Amino acid sequence: MKTRHFIALVSIMMAFFLTSCKYDYVVVPKAPPIDPEVPVKFAAEIVPIFTGTNNCIACHKTGGTAPDLTAANAYNSIVPALVNTTDAESSIIYQFAHPSSATHAWKKYSAADAELILVWIKQGAKNN
Q1: What separation, in Å, do the N-terminal and C-terminal C-alpha atoms of the chain show?
Q2: How far apart are CA 83 and CA 93, in angstroms?
């Protein structure tokens, strides 16, 4: 009888121990600050966001889902249709795949990529 009580007590203690240490928070890394005085280059810094790690062009390519984000067509597909230079934060190209967006279900920008796109838009969204 004592053995059953001991096993039951140990089992209950293990159940409490295993379920008591749970953390439901995620530490989101902050994007490094971008100097707004240094021009952001579309071809060298923005296009790689679409063609690199995010691999946006898996869907957004010629003959695929609009906008066409391939290197040759990205600028003409984005500007002016998806960019608002007077209110950069409201630009569709910035908001749609933003890390906090619930709209785009597939790939999302990293916080650093989103910040770079925002700075590029604020600088006039130039094709440089």
Answers
A1: 82
A2: 6
Mark out the alpha helices in the chain (DSSP H runs): 2-20, 47-51, 74-78, 92-95, 111-122
Tokens of 85: 């230079």
CB-CB contact of 88 with 122 (8 Å): yes
Taking the model in full, what pTM does it have? 0.72
pLDDT in tens, the chain (128 residues): 678 878 888 888 777 776 666 666 777 666 668 888 899 999 999 999 888 766 788 888 887 788 898 889 999 999 999 999 999 999 999 888 888 877 776 778 888 888 999 999 999 999 99
Token pair listed for 19: 């379920």
The residues, ordered by sequence, that sit 6+ positions from 105 with a Cβ below 8 Å of its Cβ are none
Gap between the Cα atoms of 116 and 3, Å rounded = 65
Tokens of 12: 């209950």
* 6: number of Cβ within 10 Å: 10
